Amino acid sequence: MALILPTAATPVDGQHLLPSACALSAGKAENIDRTQAEALATVQALMAARLTLMTQVAQTKWNTGAPIEDPAREQQLLDDIRLRAAQANLSPDWVVHFFRLQVEAGKEIQYMLFAQWDSEERGKFDHPVDLRADIRPRLDQMTPKLIGALSVAWPAIVSGKVHLKSCSPRALISGAGCVTPLSLVPLMDGSARADQRRTVTPIP
Ligand SMILES: C=C(O[C@@H]1C=C(C(=O)O)C=C[C@H]1O)C(=O)O
Q1: All residues at 6 or more sequence positions from 72 whose CB lies less than 8 Å from its CB, including other chains
Q2: Best mutation site among 56, 62, 64, 69 for ligand 1, i.e. most ligand atoms within 8 A of its Cβ?
Q3: Considering only CA atoms, which of 153, 166, 35, 21 is closest in space to residue 101?
Q4: How far, in Å, CA of 100 to CA of 53, rounded?
Q5: Which of 94, 156, 162, 165 is the most exposed place for a label (fewest CB within 10 A)?
Q6: 45-48 contact pairs (CB < 8 A, 24+)
Q7: What pLDDT score was predicted for residue 33?
């Protein structure tokens, strides 16, 4: 499987680089280990499941008037991830980078939904689930699973031979089993390879 890198990048908010084309393809010449390929599929499924939950997250905040961003919760999440990554023998810096972009991608979806509901002058949702009691525990259950899958897929991620489908945030919330360009950034920006170079001591 070969990664086709984006042909151009668009600065967004002066911070993130959004790949303008995220087509990824499989090539027989560059076969990757089957176990790693399956782990990559699990990574994609969990990324998509995490992002899909953001619609429910946004609905609870719309109803309660809570802000989209919760920096204390993010910090707690990333601190936990740092510990778990070390336990999984992964680079804590890279895994935190990966999750930071998952969080940003999730907020991108929530901001988009709020903008849509604002323009529709939408009222409250009828059957909101509880953010703390229902949704965050589900998000938390995904964290160790994602780290486990990233750990198995790590050699493929470092090699750049990844195969993940991307779509727009709007397509994602309408039920597509894909991930958004922003969430893919850590798998495509060369950070895994750079981290590997930094953390692996060459044999003399
Ligand atoms: C998902 C939420 O919204 C935002 C995104 C978070 C995440 O992706 O884990 C955490 C906190 C919020 O800044 C949430 O509030 O739980």
Answers
A1: none
A2: 69
A3: 166
A4: 16
A5: 165
A6: 45/177, 46/142, 46/145, 46/146, 46/149, 47/102, 47/146, 47/164, 47/179, 47/183, 48/172, 48/177, 48/178, 48/179
A7: 87
Question: 166 vs 90, which has greater pLDDT?
Answer: 90
Instruction: Look up residue 64 and give its amino acid.
Output: T
Q: Provide the sign of the torsion angle of the four alpha carbons 185, 145, 45, 36, taken in this order.
A: positive
Strand, coil or helix: 19: strand
> What are the domain boundaries of the chain?
34-198
| Tens-place pLDDT, residues 45-80 | 999 999 999 999 999 999 999 999 999 999 999 999
Ligand 1 centroid to residue 80 C-alpha, Å? 14
Choice from 51, 60, 61, 70 to test ligand 1 binding pocket (greatest atom count within 8 A of CB): 70
Name the CATH code of domain 34-198 (choices 1.20.120.80, 1.20.59.10, 2.40.50.100, 3.40.50.2300): 1.20.59.10
Q: Check if the interface score ipTM surpasses 0.95.
A: yes
